[in-house]
Write a structure and sequence with these properties.
The protein is an alpha/beta fold. The chain has 19 helices and ten strands. It folds into two domains: about 200 residues, D-Maltodextrin-Binding Protein, domain 2 (3-Layer(aba) Sandwich), CATH 3.40.190; about 200 residues, Periplasmic binding protein-like II (D-Maltodextrin-Binding Protein, domain 2). Helix content is about 45%, strand content about 15%. The chain is globular and about 65 Å long.
Length: about 425
C-alpha cells in the first residue's frame, strides 16, 4: 500500500466498503461523462441535489452522488483514498479536521491552475480565511463551500435592565457586563460557553487570537504557554468560573451551552453563527424575541474571531476524470449556487454574496453586521492545524478545564505546551 493510513483500518471496514456500491464503477478515463461525487449529509448537499438537473443539462454530464454521514464518510475516505482508488472524483471534506492530512498524503489534487482559469467564476471573491484553510504549501487544494464565524449572542432585555445601551465591544466590557447582570440576579449567568476539554477549543480560539496568541507560533513550535495564551486561558476560565452558570460543569459542548442560553438562563454566549436559529426559533428558544448578535469583542490584539470553512470541495488526486470533476466543483461553488445556498440558510465563503442584499435577507440584520466584521479580520482556523486534530484538541483544551475549575491557568498552560510540543515533534518524525 503506497499511502499511509489515515486511521486504523479494520478488516470489517474494508469488507463493508468492498460490498457497498459507492462509486458506480464504469469508465475512469478522462472522457468519462459520469462524475462521481461523495458528499456529507448536510443541507448544502440536499440543495445541490435539487439543482443537479440544471448542471447535467448544461454540461451533458451525469453526476452520481454517494451521500454519507460524517463517520461513514471518514471510513469511506480512509479505505478508498489510502488504497489509491480512482472511483471518487469530487469529495466533500472538512478542511480543519482532515485537510492537512489529506493534502500531505497527496489525496487532494492541486487546483492552483484551475481556480485561476475562469475570471467570471472569480476565485478572488472567496474570503481570505477560508481560502487559507483550503490551501496547502501555498497551493489551492479545495474550494470552501460552508463557513462559520464566532459571534456574540446576547439578551437585549437583560442589557436594558442592567442599564447597558449597547452590547460589549471589548472583552473587558464583556466581563464587566456579565458581572453586573449576574450580581443583579444570581439565577442568571452573566456568560455561558462551551466548557468540555475538546469542544471548547474551537470557541476558545477566538479569545486566544484576540489576546494575540495562537496554538502554534510562526516557527511551528507549540505556543499555548505564551503570555498571550496564558491570559486567554485565565480570562475564558475565569469568566465561566466567576460569572457563568452556578456549579458549571466542565463537559459542555454547544447543545448544553445553547440550552442554558435559550432557556433564559444566561445573558451572553459566544458561539458559531451557524447555530443562530437555535436561539431565534420560537419552537426552540424561550428568549427568541430578545436575542441580539454582535461582533466578537476585542481583546488586547483586537477582535480576531475565527472565520473558517467547515466544509469544502476537493478533487481526488487519483481521479482520472479531473477535468469534468472541476466542472462540477466550479458550478457548485459559483456565485449563483452560493447565493441560492445562502438564501436557504447555508453561509458561504463569497464576499459578493454577503454584500448582496438577497444573500442576507433571511438573516437577522445585526447578525449580518457581526458576520461582516468577522470576515474582515477573521482567522482561518479554529483549532491546531495538525494531522491528528482530535488528539491535539485534548491537549490544548486541558487548560480551559483547569481554569474553569479554578486551578492555576498559567501552570496548566505550561504543562499543556510541553505535551503539545512533544505531540508536534512526534508528528514531524
Amino acid at each position: 500500500m503506497r499511502r499511509r493510513s489515515i486511521l486504523g483500518t479494520s478488516l470489517a471496514v474494508v469488507a463493508a466498503m468492498g460490498l457497498s456500491a459507492c462509486g458506480g464503477g464504469g469508465d475512469d478515463s478522462a472522457s468519462s461523462k459520469t462524475v462521481r461525487v461523495t458528499l456529507a449529509n448536510h443541507v448544502w448537499t440536499e440543495n445541490i441535489k435539487q439543482a443537479l438537473p440544471e448542471f447535467e443539462k448544461q454540461t451533458g454530464l451525469k453526476v452520481e452522488i454517494t451521500q454519507l454521514g460524517e463517520d461513514q464518510l471518514s471510513d469511506q475516505y480512509n479505505v478508498k483514498l489510502n488504497a489509491g482508488s480512482s472511483d471518487i472524483d469530487v469529495m466533500m471534506y472538512r478542511p480543519l479536521q482532515e485537510g492537512k492530512l489529506f493534502a500531505k498524503n497527496k489525496y487532494l489534487a492541486d487546483l492552483s491552475d484551475k481556480v485561476k482559469s475562469n475570471k467570471d467564476w472569480d476565485f478572488s471573491d472567496f474570503q481570505a480565511g477560508p481560502v487559507d484553510a483550503t490551501s496547502y504549501e501555498d497551493k489551492a487544494v479545495g474550494v470552501p463551500i460552508i463557513t462559520e464565524q464566532e459571534v456574540l449572542y446576547y439578551r437585549k432585555d437583560l442589557l436594558g435592565k442592567a442599564g447597558l445601551t449597547a452590547p460589549p465591544k471589548t472583552l473587558d466590557e464583556l466581563k464587566a457586563a456579565a458581572a453586573k447582570i449576574k450580581a443583579a440576579d444570581p439565577s442568571i449567568a452573566g456568560f455561558v460557553a462551551r466548557t468540555g476539554k475538546s469542544p471548547a477549543v474551537t470557541q476558545f480560539s477566538s479569545f486566544l487570537y484576540s489576546f494575540g496568541g495562537d496554538f502554534i507560533d510562526g516557527s511551528g513550535k507549540a505556543s499555548v504557554n505564551s503570555e498571550q495564551a496564558k491570559q486567554a486561558y485565565a480570562y475564558y476560565g475565569g469568566l465561566l468560573k466567576d460569572h457563568g452558570p452556578a456549579n458549571v460543569s466542565t463537559d459542555m459542548s454547544w447543545p448544553e451551552a445553547m440550552a442554558i442560553f435559550t432557556q433564559g438562563k444566561a445573558a451572553f454566549y459566544t458561539e458559531a453563527n451557524s447555530l443562530y436559529k437555535n436561539a431565534t426559533d420560537p419552537a426552540k428558544s424561550k428568549v427568541s424575541e430578545t436575542v441580539g448578535f454582535a461582533p466578537f469583542p476585542a481583546g488586547p490584539a483586537g477582535s480576531k474571531p475565527y472565520n473558517i470553512p467547515s466544509w469544502a470541495l476537493g478533487i481526488n488526486d487519483n481521479s482520472e476524470n479531473q477535468s469534468n470533476a472541476w466542472k462540477f466543483v466550479e458550478w457548485a461553488t459559483s456565485k449563483e449556487q452560493t447565493l441560492a445556498q445562502q438564501k436557504s440558510g447555508v453561509p458561504g465563503a463569497r464576499t459578493s454574496v454577503w454584500a448582496n442584499p438577497e444573500g442576507t435577507a433571511t438573516y437577522p440584520k445585526d447578525l449580518v453586521e457581526a458576520i461582516a466584521a468577522s470576515t474582515k479580520d477573521g482567522v482561518g482556523h479554529d483549532r491546531p492545524l495538525v494531522n491528528k486534530v482530535a488528539q491535539a484538541r485534548e491537549i490544548v483544551g486541558q487548560p480551559i478545564v483547569d481554569a474553569i475549575a479554578g486551578k492555576d491557568a498559567a501552570a496548566a498552560a505550561d504543562t499543556a505546551n510541553e505535551a503539545f510540543q512533544k505531540f508536534l515533534d512526534d508528528e514531524a518524525k
